[in-house]
């Protein structure tokens, strides 16, 4: 019986907890072609993302996609953080003022 009371109390607390407001899309752009693409997205909570990519070495054995882009978000501290990146044959390479920098080898 105690278990049921505790379970119902915890369920009531979880149900009554305020839900995080949902962000709405305020801008969306997308362009997809056979060998390239680009898109941009902005939401009402200050988040944004844009990226463009293209196919390199088309038809070759080492054909691959190269993508460049950035994303921004507003953190819990109220500050907007931005990450720019490139993703290519060398992997994902992010940069941002708030990201740690690997020591030189």
TrEMBL record:
Point out the signal peptide segment. 1-16
> Is Isomerase found in the keyword set?
no
Q: Any transmembrane segments, and where? A: none
One matching Pfam family is Chitin_bind_4
> Does the UniProt entry include the keyword Signal?
yes
Record-level GO cellular component terms: chitin-based extracellular matrix
Q: What is the lineage of its organism?
A: Eukaryota, Metazoa, Ecdysozoa, Arthropoda, Hexapoda
Provide the species name.
Ceratitis capitata (Mediterranean fruit fly)
Recite the UniProt keywords alphabetically.
Answer: Cuticle, Signal
Q: Which PANTHER family does this chain map to?
A: ADULT CUTICLE PROTEIN 65AA-RELATED, CUTICLE PROTEIN
Quick one: which gene encodes this? LCP5
Protein's name according to its UniProt entry: (Mediterranean fruit fly) hypothetical protein
Gene Ontology MF: a single term:
structural constituent of chitin-based larval cuticle
């Amino acid at each position: 019986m105690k278990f049921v009371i505790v379970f119902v109390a915890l369920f009531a607390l979880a149900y009554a907890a305020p839900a995080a407001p949902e962000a709405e899309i305020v801008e969306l752009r997308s362009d997809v072609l056979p060998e390239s693409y680009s898109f941009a997205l902005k939401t009402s909570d200050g988040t944004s993302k844009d990226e463009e990519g293209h196919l390199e070495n088309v038809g070759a054995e080492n054909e691959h996609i190269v993508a460049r882009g950035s994303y921004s978000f507003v953190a819990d501290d109220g500050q907007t953080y931005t990450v720019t990146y490139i993703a290519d044959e060398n992997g994902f390479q992010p940069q941002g003022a708030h990201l740690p920098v690997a020591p030189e080898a």
